[in-house]
Structure formats: structure tokens, C-alpha cells
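Input record (one chain):
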Amino acid sequence: MPAGCDAALVLRERLAFWSALAEDQARLWQLVGADEPSPVPVAAADLGAVVDALLGNVFRHTPQGTAFRVTLHRGSGMVGVLVADAGPGIPDPERALRRGNSGAGSTGLGLDIARRLAESTGGGVRIEPSALGGTGVNLWLHTDGRAAGPRRRLLRRTRAHGSRH
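The corresponding structure, as predicted from the sequence alone:
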């Protein structure tokens, strides 16, 4: 079983990374709810890769200047991450969640990786319209040990320094 991590810390670290590109592209962004520890039963590298995939989708599929927000929610036995944007939205959310389906310029695997990570804890992923007017991707991870099956490392690092960009 992978060691768990602090979802709030992972979100702060990944947003610090993405903030430079957001500034370059005149994107207003917000991180909400990441001020207190939020333990989750997944490896920090796996959660970081999922956050990168979701934010990469925002940058890839919305015009420069499009705002986005990442919100961390805590509930009884679960932690949720909502990545919301003010872009054009996803026309077919069900299709987007199927492995290998994507819009132009991506492999379509990011949402599948997010879904697999969430399901490894008994959680899931849902896509719906966001309060910002675009797409909201809701990832929820159960923290109370109700994993759907045996946990395994979902991603393998292939680059010497772990750089994904």
C-alpha cells in the first residue's frame, strides 16, 4: 500500500508550480480550503500527477486569460478536490471520462488516471458545469479505508528528475 499524503500540501505545491504559467497567461486563479492538513491514503506523487493532469487540461482546453479555481473539501471519511474553470466546458462529460477520449491536443488519459486514483480509495470522479461557467472536475477520495480493491502505484516515473513539463 502506498504511503498516504497531505492533500492540502500537494495542492499548495502544485499550484505554486502552475502559478507561473497562470501569470504568463493572465489567468486569475484561486486555491480554496488548503489551509489545514487533509490526509488521504494515496501517494503524494500520484495525487500530484492527477492534479497536474487536471490543471494541464485547464491550460490546454481553455483560452489564455481563463480563470480557474481549485477547492479542497473535507467531509466525513472523504476528501474532495474540485478543479473548476471559466472556459467553454466539456460537451460530453461521459465520453471525456472514458480512457483515451480527448479533445485536440491531449491523450485523454489524465481523467482516466484521476478516475483510477479515486477508485483505488473507493471514491470517484464526476464532471459537471462549474460555478465559474465552464467545467468542474470533482475528485473524491475516501479516507476511511473502503478501497475498491488492492491499491497499487498508478504511475511510474520515467524521467530522471520527475519533471512532467
